[in-house]
Known about the structure:
Elements: H1 39-45, H2 47-54
Amino acid sequence: xxxxxxxxxxxxxxxxxxxxxxxxxxxxxxxxxxxxxxxxxxxxxxxxxxxxxxxxxxxxx
Length: 61
């Protein structure tokens, strides 16, 4: 299987629109992995992460 990768380093408010399913990783700086404001983003990327977050299991997410 051939894959392609693209790294975008810019202000997210100015990023062009991407098609649904185009992003598989959200990297924040500094990283805030367990702050509730990110739960929606992680849940959108991974339904399994969303389930884990809803049950309060941040490590599994």
